Structures are given as structure tokens and as C-alpha cells.
Amino acid sequence: QVQLVESGGGLVQPGGSLRLSCAASGFIFRGNRMRWYRQGPGKERELVAAISSTGSSTDYADSVKGRFTISRDNAKNTVYLQMNSLKPEDTAVYYCNAPLFSDVWGQGTQVTVSS
User: Fold this and answer.
1) Rounded to an integer, what distance in angstroms lies between the CA atom of residue 26 and that of residue 57?
2) Could you point out which of 30, 60, 104, 112 has its C-alpha 20 to 30 Å from the C-alpha of 50?
3) Distance CA 65, CA 74 (A)
């Protein structure tokens, strides 16, 4: 059974940082690409960042490029999202996802950027 558990969200002031984690289980993590998505209030879910199975290739939405970094630890079956220079428009519930199991979503982790 594929499971994804996100953590690390919280309330942070503009300009602050957070590191999100996503623990994966139930599939061969090291063989799969991973993605982070977010869904802001009243908005559709959007792709934020993606990483290849080995971590050698990454891609970002223009809105977060230069501020967010996706990484992974295949020994821990975990993917991370380091978020720096956070802005109020980054406020959203953040989810990780494995494209091969695109219908499987975790509960997400809430990120609120506010002064």
C-alpha cells in the first residue's frame, strides 16, 4: 500500500524558511521520480518542484525558482523541500506525490506565511 506522509509545515514570517519532509512507503522509492505540489486557498493544486529518481535532475515552477530546493534521501525513502525567502503567496497546503502513483496523496502539510 503506497503511503505518503508530509510534515514540517507551520507559520512563518515573510522572508523566513521552512523545510518540508515527505516519508514514502509501499513502493520502490529509489526507482521513482517525486514531486511537490501545493494548493493555496481558493486555488487549484499546482506543481512546485520535481526530482528524478537519483536526485541528479530537478525542476521548479517559475514562482519558486531560486527560493525552493527539492532533494531526496533514498536511504530514508524521504523527499524534502527547502523553502527560503518565503512570501505570503506561498501560503498553501503542500503535498508530495509519485507520478507513477498519481492518485495517491497524503494529508499534506499547511504552510502559512504571514506577519
Assistant:
1) 23
2) 112
3) 23
- Assess contact for 94 and 5: CB atoms under 8 A: no
* Cβ 49 vs Cβ 60: under 8 Å: yes
Place of cell 521520480: 33
Starting at the earlier edge strand, list the strands of the sheet with 3-7.
3-7, 18-25, 78-83, 68-73
> pLDDT class for 87, splitting at 50, 70, 90?
very high
SS in 3 state form for the chain?
CCEEEEECCEEECCCCCEEEEEEEECCCHHHCCEEEEEECCCCCCEEEEEECCCCCCEEECCCCCCCEEEEEECCCCEEEEEECCCCHHHCEEEEEECHHHCCCCCCCEEEEECC
- Please classify residue 95 by burial: count the beta carbons closer than 10 Å to its beta carbon, then call 0-12 exposed, 13-18 middle and 19+ buried: buried
Query: What pLDDT digit, counting tens, does each position of 22-66 carry?
Result: 999 988 899 999 999 999 999 999 999 999 999 999 999 999 999
